[in-house]
């Protein structure tokens, strides 16, 4: 990890809710439901409707203990707009050194997408706080286990992409310490009650797999 780059925080549960497609009209209630279930990190992908408005509303509505930020951040200039909206987490599907460096420079948490050892080490060198293995279902637990063997012990690996709560145990055994949950947790059209049910199931599965 680059010197002075923010480390991944010590959360009770390393679960990131990915609210792709969420609207500002529903985001506060959904965010509140996720936080009540035990989620401590929420990302709103920038290809959602009015994502910066949703981020701003989440930040104002939720406790400071809940990390709020953006996903699908592809350009360094977008990092500044996320921060201006109140976000402190920047998630990308790829390993863009400029995005990572700008995120670290602003003291924000950087979670870039990587798939190979070369990308993983490049991301850490640029200032990543943790590594998002994406798409995790393609690399699988065995691939993550191989990466885990060569990465620094303190490096937090998040499995994201095609992962649901039924997969947690296998990924934890392989060395993953965090998970990003998208469509298995929220999709446009889900009711708040449905999101709450799925969130509670995910938290219970995480606690079991992580030995909480």
From TrEMBL:
Q: Name one Pfam family in it.
A: Aldolase
Q: Which family does it belong to?
A: Belongs to the KHG/KDPG aldolase family.
Q: Which CDD domains match?
A: KDPG_aldolase
* GO MF assignments: lyase activity
User: Where does this protein act, in terms of pathway?
Assistant: Carbohydrate acid metabolism
Which UniProt key words apply to this protein? Carbohydrate metabolism, Lyase
The cross-references to InterPro entries, in alphabetical order and at most eight, read:
Aldlse_KDPG_KHG (IPR000887), Aldolase_TIM (IPR013785)
Q: What is this protein called?
A: 2-dehydro-3-deoxy-6-phosphogalactonate aldolase
Its taxonomic placement starts with: Bacteria, Pseudomonadati, Pseudomonadota, Alphaproteobacteria, Hyphomicrobiales
The reply on keyword Ligase is no
Can you state the subunit structure given in the record?
A: Homotrimer.
Task: Read off the SUPFAM superfamilies from this record.
Answer: Aldolase (SSF51569)
